[in-house]
Amino acid sequence: MGTFHHDAHELHGITCVVETTGPRTYVGRVDTIDARGVVMLDADLHEEAPGAATKDAWIAKAARVGHWPRHPKIVVAVDDVASVRRLGDVPTA
Predict the structure, then answer these.
(1) Is the sign of the CA dihedral 50, 73, 43, 29 positive or negative?
(2) Nearest CA to 37 among 48, 47, 28, 46?
(3) CB under 8 Å to 31, separation ≥6 — which residues?
(4) How many CA atoms lie within 13 A of 2 on its CB side?
(5) Does some domain include residue 44?
(6) Is residue 5 part of a domain?
(7) Domain count for the chain
(8) How far apart are the C-alpha atoms of 84 and 29, rounded to whole Å?
(9) CB contact set of 76 (below 8 Å; sequence gap of 6+)
(10) Do the beta carbons of residue 10 and residue 28 sit within 8 Å?
(11) Which domain holds residue 23?
């Protein structure tokens, strides 16, 4: 459901998917979204590569079973962000 603070971004505390303009996709808890970009806590990332799971398969698995928080904090630069969506909005079927 998220953490509600009057001075925080509306996605603060929500686990989201951040797709970039490059080969990386992130899943983690949004701390804030500001001029720097998206600040995520307890995040994981997927990088498109031959032999790796597809981005869509990786996101779908994270939506079904959760993600592994390999990175305590990641900042995705504003120029690299293509989209931000709630992981809970990703279909699991």
Answers:
(1) negative
(2) 28
(3) 12, 39, 40, 41, 73
(4) 18
(5) yes
(6) no
(7) 1
(8) 11
(9) 18, 20, 26, 37, 38, 40
(10) no
(11) 15-82
What CATH number is associated with residue 68? 2.30.30.100
pLDDT value of residue 92: 78
CB 88 within 8 A of CB 50: no
pLDDT > 90? residue 56:
yes
43 found inside a domain? yes
What's the length of the chain? 93
Gyration radius of the chain over CA positions: 13
Output phi, psi for 7, to 5 deg.
Answer: -100, 10
**What percent of the chain is predicted at pLDDT more than 70?**
86
CA distance 17 to 55: 11
Does 10 reside within a domain?
Answer: no
Return the C-alpha torsion angle 79, 21, 19, 52, nearest 10.
Answer: -140
Query: Which amino acid belongs to residue 2?
Result: G
What is the number of other CB atoms lying within 10 angstroms of the CB of residue 28? 27
